[in-house]
Amino acid sequence: MFVNQDLKILGETIKPGQQAEVSFNVAKLHTRTPVDVPIIISRSKKPGPTVLFTAGIHGDEVNGIEIVRQLISKGINKPKIGTTICIPVLNIFGFINMEREFPDGRDLNRVFPGIKNGSLASRVAYEIINEVVTHVDFIVDFHTGGAYRFNAPQIRIEYGNEDDDVMAEIFGAPFILYSKNLNKSFRNTCNKMGKPILLYEGGKSFHIDSNITNTGVNGAKRILNHFGMLRKPFNVSEPKKSCVKITKSKWIRANYSGMFKSTIKLGVQVNTGDTIGNITDPYGKFNHFVRATHSGYIININQSPIVYQGDALFHISTEIID
């Protein structure tokens, strides 16, 4: 049973029915210019759950940032009941510099739950957990594939949690990828706190893709609708296809260095021996066909035009749940 009471975040009090933008003062640049992380809070007068949408934990993952931006700009974040909290850019330093890490070289997603007087990244993690996450009931964290590696839209959760399974299916991404929680990650810390979290992966860094962002926005709407928080006139649509649940997967790696081109679409099912790409040299003397070493769904494609021997080219499922 939810009770409508004042919400206190970073020294600010937000009452039921109020909208607020709270500034999380991270630190200052070396020029002494202050750097703030805006936290957008929207509350209904009616009691209900508190849902947190986060993105930009890695500063170069702009697809996720664009998804949360759309939730705010379209007013999807204004709830019928309960509260939404949106943090479009967790790693503001990385976003400013278009880099994955913090200025101290640390990966924010490897220092949770953080230390109050630790490194810069650790201090930010500490504030996020203690000032924001403690207040929420459900979290959706938006991520993107690394440079050149384009992820199919997917939800990542740990295997064996039925509640997470239900929420992942409600979100409606084409794929659910079961993966272990990494030590000191945001997802692992939230799970240890008893805070349910879905991690959405889609696209690649330094890039905004409309299919990836649309899937993310629609998934967020389905989650809000499930909790009775989605206002009219927003509607939810059923996913075009049922989620494919992947329990194991494997990378196909380059046997040769050269110029690389994929010849298969992301998300499709392939069979052992299918030609899925080719590696050539710049001089027209060499052409190696990359073939699927096993059957499965293509869930990631390396889109770099140049690859070296041993580079990961295709991520393909090996075991799925029917």
Automatic annotation (TrEMBL):
<dbReference type="GO" id="GO:0046872">
    <property type="term" value="F:metal ion binding"/>
</dbReference>
<dbReference type="InterPro" id="IPR055438">
    <property type="entry name" value="AstE_AspA_cat"/>
</dbReference>
<keyword id="KW-0862">Zinc</keyword>
<dbReference type="GO" id="GO:0016811">
    <property type="term" value="F:hydrolase activity, acting on carbon-nitrogen (but not peptide) bonds, in linear amides"/>
</dbReference>
<protein>
    <recommendedName>
        <fullName>Succinylglutamate desuccinylase/Aspartoacylase catalytic domain-containing protein</fullName>
    </recommendedName>
</protein>
<keyword id="KW-0378">Hydrolase</keyword>
<dbReference type="InterPro" id="IPR043795">
    <property type="entry name" value="N-alpha-Ac-DABA-like"/>
</dbReference>
<dbReference type="InterPro" id="IPR053138">
    <property type="entry name" value="N-alpha-Ac-DABA_deacetylase"/>
</dbReference>
<feature type="domain" description="Succinylglutamate desuccinylase/Aspartoacylase catalytic">
    <location>
        <begin position="47"/>
        <end position="226"/>
    </location>
</feature>
<dbReference type="Pfam" id="PF24827">
    <property type="entry name" value="AstE_AspA_cat"/>
</dbReference>
<keyword id="KW-0479">Metal-binding</keyword>
<dbReference type="GO" id="GO:0016788">
    <property type="term" value="F:hydrolase activity, acting on ester bonds"/>
</dbReference>
